[in-house]
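Data availability (excerpt). The following record was deposited with the supplementary files.
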Amino acid sequence: MNADVIYQLNESVKQNVGKVIVGKEEVIELLVIALVTSGHVLLEDVPGTGKTMLAKSLASSLSLAFKRIQFTPDLLPSDLSGIHFYNQKESDFEFRPGPLFTHLLLADEINRATPRTQSSLLECMEERQVSIDGETMKLERPFMVIATQNPVEQQGTFPLPEAQLDRFLFKIKMGYPSTDDGLILLKRFMRSDPLTELTPIATREQLIAASNSYQDVRVSDDILAYLLNIVEATRSHEDVVIGVSPRGSQALLRAVQVHAILRGRDYVTPDDIKAMAKPVLAHRIVLRGLQRGMNGTEKVIDQLLERLPVPSEEQLVAE
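Predicted structure:
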C-alpha cells in the first residue's frame, strides 16, 4: 500500500484550493476522500457561501476534464448524456457526447431540474456508464459529480429523492466564514480573482494510483461489526422511517479507510468511523413527520454513537 500518494494528494489539494477558499480545510479534505474513493458530493448551503467556487477550485487543481451544468427546469436528460444526430455530410448517424462524458462534473443547483432530468444521473453516478438509445457507454476514470443546491428556496425546485441522495458519498454544509476568515477573503479578492491563478497539482495517473491504494488499509472484525451496528441501529431507531442502506455501509467503509491514511495510520479505529459517520450517513436517513432535516438526522447519529459500545484500540492494533 502506497499511503504516501493519498496523503500528499490531500496536502497538495488543501494548499492549492486554500488559495481561493478560506478556512474550509475539513470540507476540502472530504472532497479529497470522495475523489479517492470514486464518490460523489452534494454541497448544500445558502447562496454565496462558496459552493460553486469550491468545486471550480478543485477542478482547477487537477489535470482532469471538467464540465459545468447549470440545472434549470427546462433541462432535458439528453442535454446531459448527448444525442445521436444525422450527419448529412457522412450520410450516417453520429453521436455527440454531452457533458456527462468528463472526469469532474459540476451539477450546479441540481434541485432546480425536474425529477426526470435528475434521474438521468442515477446510472452514471452508480455504474460509471451511460445508456443512450439502447447502447451502453463507459465513462473514463476518474468520474466524480459535485452537485450544489440551495436549501432555502423552495419555489421552482424539486427535492432530490432518497434514491438520488443515496448515490452521494457525502452531503456537506459549507457554513459561513469566521470574522477572521471573512477579512482574509475580502483582502484576497479585493484586487484579483485567485481562482484564475490556480495551476494543476496532480495528474490523472496520480489520482487513479491513489484510488487503487487505499483498499489495503486494515479493518478488524471488531471495527466492521461496530460500523455495521451503527448502520443497523439507524433502521431500528424510534424516530427513523428509512435507515441507512447497504450501499451506505459500504460508502462508510471506504471513507474511513482513506480517513485513516490521512491520520497517518494503516488501520481503521473507531475515531475514523465517528469522524465520517455524519457526512456519510446523515443524508441517507429519513425521519418521521416534522423531524425531517439534516439537523435531526445528525442528532440521531450522535445518539447512536453515544449508545453503542466501542471496541478498544489495543485490540484493533493487535489484530
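Summary of structural features: The longest strand covers residues 82-87.
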